[in-house]
Amino acid sequence: MPESSFEWLPSLIAVPYTRSKKKGGQRKDLLRIAFENSMSLLGAMAVGDLIDIIRSMEQASEEGESSEDNELFDKLQGEDADELLHDLRLIGMEQMSLGKWVALLRTLDSFCTKQKINLTLPESLAVYGKAKKEVDELVSIRNHDAHGPAIPEDKLDDELDRRQALLEKVLAKFEFLSKWR
To answer: Among 10, 15, 95, 112, which is most buried by a count of CB atoms within 10 Å?
Structure first.
């Protein structure tokens, strides 16, 4: 996918992504930063969306209005919600890392799918589901970089090209942002 097709990405993703297109010493870090920023943005969007839904249901309840979301409100107070809260506590929402953002996306995607919760911006969670293989591989690569041996110099460019291709598959799923204002 040509670089110009990603011009609609938010700058926290677009800047490191665009800079990573140039061969150079920081390319590996720029790819990682673009990926980490993309996962944290998705997580923040999904959590914000769910909080907005809950807040509007609470407000309707306080005002005595009947809400078509009463069934959803009940779901958010049932056993499945307790399971969600338990899973979120296990993730540990303090000091968020790449792994925690991905775990958050995985947990929220599973809960919203199971409960048939329609987010205002469902594409934010759909990115993980549509690019799960690439996301999981990029997380694995990042963990290997942090805890494994260095990439041999003669293989570095090919490896970074492979990572760039994986990242581009993930970023292509962000196309919904081009229409979102």
So the answer is: 112
Q: Give how far Cα 6 sits from Cα of 16, 32, 167, 178, Å.
A: 12, 17, 12, 9
Read off the tokens for 168: 């581009």
Integer Cα distance of 179 and 169 in angstroms: 19
Quote the DSSP letter at residue 105. Answer: H
Residues 6+ apart with CB under 8 A from 136: 102
Chain-centroid distance, C-alpha 67: 30
pTM for the predicted model, two decimal places? 0.82
Q: Among 95, 121, 97, which residue's Cα sits nearest to residue 108?
A: 121
Q: Which residues of 87-98 are buried (b: 16+ CB within 10 A; e: fewer)?
A: bbeebeeeebeb
Report the C-alpha gap between 16 and 32 in whole angstroms: 9
**Structure tokens given for 140:** 């694995």
The tens digit of pLDDT for each residue in 81-123 reads 677 777 777 777 667 889 888 988 888 888 888 877 777 777 8
DSSP 8-class letter at 151: P
DSSP 69: T
